[in-house]
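Hi C.,

You asked whether I'd gotten around to modeling the 231-residue construct. I have! Everything is below, sequence then structure, no commentary in between.
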Amino acid sequence: MKQKIGAVLQTTALQDKITPREALRLFGSLYRDSVTPGALLEQFGLTGKADAAFDTLSRGQQQRLGLALAFVNKPELVFLDEPTTGLDPQSRRELHGMIARMKRDGHTVLLTTHYIDEAAHLCDRIAIIDQGRIIVEGTPRELIARSMASPSISLETVQPIDGGWLTALPGVHDVTCEPTSAHFRSADVGRTLAELMHLLEAQQIEIAELHVQKATLEDVFLELTGTRLSD
């Protein structure tokens, strides 16, 4: 079983002075069949840092090394425990690409994350855990379809708008309004937008931007747990 499993923890911790090449050689020696250090260094973009001390690597490079170590034994199943926590946007995007490639190459990936957009982007199936218990699971599309949240509408205008006008529109609720922008939800998007267009035209208010967003996985999470992801 050990031969078929790989794992990446939230933080990759190795001896300060060990190099990626040495670490891969060491981990590979623990398995009957392993990938060569050179192949893994190239696959995970670490060839240029092959002989650099671990404590000189950036956080993103350390996590890429963690991924390389997880693949040293050619695993079928890979556990990723919040691998992108604390990474800068570029490093996070790079790891997303590597995780997507793992899936394409036929590996089964079990990912834990607090980033709902990450789960939506990378996962074929999602389980939401609250208080240590799985409360719902399914594909992203299935989970969103269960949501009772109304679609949200974001509006930006050239001229100022009155939040009271928006509150009076059919189906509208949860209105937040600034002088030239507003965000609200609607239980009847088609009717709301039709009335909104008439209102703005009558008041001679020009639209700068208008976006309609269906319910999201974050809406699902909030409905099921009563807390936001940041709580």
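If it helps when you're writing up: The mean pLDDT is 90.

Thanks,
B.
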